[in-house]
TrEMBL record:
Annotated membrane topology: Multi-pass membrane protein
Family: Belongs to the G-protein coupled receptor 1 family.
Keywords from the named record: Cell membrane, G-protein coupled receptor, Membrane, Olfaction, Receptor, Sensory transduction, Transducer, Transmembrane, Transmembrane helix
One Pfam family cited in the UniProt record for this chain: 7tm_4
GO cellular component terms listed in the entry, alphabetical order: plasma membrane
PROSITE patterns the record matches: G_PROTEIN_RECEP_F1_1, G_PROTEIN_RECEP_F1_2
Transmembrane portions of the chain: 26-48, 60-82, 94-120, 140-163, 211-229, 241-259, 271-291
PANTHER family xrefs: OLFACTORY RECEPTOR 51I2, OLFACTORY RECEPTOR 56B1-RELATED
UniProt keyword annotation of Membrane present: yes
Listed name of the protein: Olfactory receptor
Species for this entry: Sciurus vulgaris (Eurasian red squirrel)
Length: 312
């Protein structure tokens, strides 16, 4: 018998929000608005960075990477989420579910890596400003982007194969309107220790380490800023970090909330788990373009100039 010649369903059934099935058509409207803001806002930022010479700087290159990962994350979840809520079409093929699972986890890890790279950008800009241009060259930025992408692909490449080796015979109903590794492995009627250990290893070695290094970078930034004599200069330096700090909070706070609910909220209503997972996946792509557009005047100016050129 081959390694992957095991019992598995031809397809899975996706789930919206348990207990609120009658409200799904009403929830489809806000979901469409969120997708429109995420896709539209991040696409505008990508175009502004591409077209405006004033935004051809390391900080904005990293921002364009963040916008790309947000667009990709939204595109990875959009088909099944809207089919589930708008059309009540819950069926998804087994292999398609594996592909979606891989994409969602990959782009999520990619976003974490980009947030770490952006914290390094802020650290160099504040702690070693005279060498900023020589440290963060275009080649270095491109290398960091490739490293983040390669890490996501290589680290998560085993996940689909770890799922395919499991016999799935308990049920074919998933807990969300998209496919996630923890959700799929719980349906297996076999030992899932390897999946659980590898999932924890990935979580700690990537997301956990990224968050730790982001925290350490801001400790060093605060130490450097406190050494500035002028109060106005201290506030000016810290103000350049506000957008990034908000983006980090928008990404990691829902993630920590989801992990906490899954580990310690086993008796919480099922819709709480689903809502927390949806917040984790949908909120960062929506908030990031709003945060950077509101808090970064260079981005606002670049967007205005871009639209002005398009009208001419």
């Amino acid at each position: 018998m081959g390694l992957f010649n095991v019992t598995r369903p031809a397809s899975f059934l996706l789930t919206g929000i348990p207990g609120l099935e009658r409200s799904h058509p009403w929830l489809a409207g806000p979901l469409c608005v969120m997708y429109a803001v995420a896709l539209g806002g991040n696409t505008v930022i990508l175009q502004a960075v591409r077209m405006e010479p004033s935004l051809h700087a390391p900080m904005y290159y990293f921002l364009s990477m963040l916008s790309f990962s947000d667009v990709a994350m939204s595109m990875a979840t959009l088909p099944t989420v809207l089919r589930t809520f708008c059309l009540d079409a819950r069926d998804i093929a087994f292999d398609a579910c594996l592909i979606q699972m891989f994409l969602i986890h990959s782009f999520s890890m990619m976003e974490s890596g980009i947030l770490l790279a952006m914290s390094f950008d802020r650290y160099v800009a504040i702690c070693d400003p005279l060498r900023y241009a020589t440290i963060l060259t275009n080649e270095v930025i491109a290398g960091m982007g490739l490293a983040v992408t390669a890490r996501s692909f290589v680290t998560l490449f085993p996940l689909p194969f770890l799922i395919k080796r499991l016999p799935i015979c308990r049920s074919n109903v998933l807990s969300h309107s998209y496919c996630l590794h923890p959700d799929m492995m719980k349906l297996a009627c076999a030992d899932i220790t390897v999946n659980s250990i590898y999932g924890l290893f990935v979580l700690v070695s990537t997301f956990g380490m990224d968050l730790l290094f982001i925290f350490l970078s801001y400790v060093l930034i605060l130490h450097s800023v406190m050494g500035i004599a002028s109060r106005e200069e201290r506030l000016k330096a810290l103000n350049t970090c506000v957008s990034h700090i908000l983006a980090v909070l928008a990404f990691y706070v829902p993630m920590i909330g989801v992990s906490t609910v899954h580990r310690f909220g086993k008796h919480a209503p099922r819709y709480i788990h689903v809502l927390m997972s949806n917040v984790y996946l949908f909120v960062p792509p929506v908030l990031n373009p709003l945060i950077y557009s509101a808090k970064t005047k260079e981005i606002r100016r670049g967007i205005v100039r871009m639209f002005h050129r398009m009208k001419m």
